[in-house]
Amino acid sequence: MTTLYLASGSPRRRELLAQIGVPFVSLMTSVDETPLPDETPAAYVERLARAKAAAGLATLGADEQAVVLGADTTVVLDGRILGKPASREECIAMLQSLGGREHEVLTAVALASVQHSEARTVSSRVGFRPVDAVEAGAYWDTGEPADKAGGYAIQGFAAVFVRHLQGSYSAVVGLPLCETAHLLTEFGIPFWQPK
Ligand SMILES: Cc1cn([C@H]2C[C@H](O)[C@@H](COP(=O)(O)OP(=O)(O)OP(=O)(O)O)O2)c(=O)[nH]c1=O
Predict the structure, then answer these.
(1) Which residue among 32, 63, 72, 147 is the active-site one?
(2) What interface predicted TM-score (ipTM) does this complex get?
(3) Comparing C-alpha atoms, which of 157, 177, 145 is closest to residue 13?
(4) With the C-alpha atoms ordered 159, 161, 163, 165, is the resulting torsion angle positive or negative?
(5) Are 91 and 122 in contact (CB under 8 A)?
(6) What global pTM score does this model have?
(7) How many CB atoms lie within 10 A of CB 95?
C-alpha cells in the first residue's frame, strides 16, 4: 500500500494536509534555500519544492510504496524574493516595503516517488494597507513573523494588514490544497473523497 510522507517541518503544512483528510507521515528534511544566480522566483520555488520531496525520498531508501510531498512558499516584491526575516530590523523594513501595495506569493508543491515526480506552482496576489514602523516592530515582538516568508502570517495577527487576496488562501498559508489534491489523485492517493 502507498504511504504518503510530508517532507516538512512546517506546522501549517501538516494542518493543511490534514484538512483534506489524507493520512500521512511527517519527515524532517533540510535543503539549502539559497537562490541560484539569476534564478526567477517561480523557478526557485519549484526547485525547492522538488528538492524537499527528493530529500525526503532519499531518507526512505528505495521504498517503491512511498510518495513524498515537498512545498515551498516565497513572497515576491518587484521581482525580488523576500525570505524569512533574520532580525527585528529586517522584519520592520520588509513589512513597510509590503505596506500600501500589492505583492505576489508563490507556492510550489511537489510529489515524488521512486518512479516519477510532479510539481505545480500557484501565484496569488496580496494587498496590504500601509504598515508603520511601530506597528511592524510590535508585530515582530509577537513572535509570529520569524519563520514566515515575507515576515508575516495571513492566518495569524497579520490578517489585520490584508486588504485583499486574489488567488489561493491555502497556498499563501503554505500548501495549495486544490492543486495538492489533484497531484495526490495522479499518484493514486485518495483525499477525503469516498474510495
Ligand atoms: C506568506 C506566509 C507564509 N507562511 C509560511 C509558510 C511556510 O511555512 C513559510 C515559508 O517557508 P518555507 O521555506 O516555504 O517552509 P518552512 O521552512 O516553514 O517549512 P519546510 O521547508 O520544512 O516545509 O512561511 C505562513 O505561514 N503564512 C503566510 O501568510
Answers:
(1) 72
(2) 0.97
(3) 177
(4) negative
(5) no
(6) 0.96
(7) 27
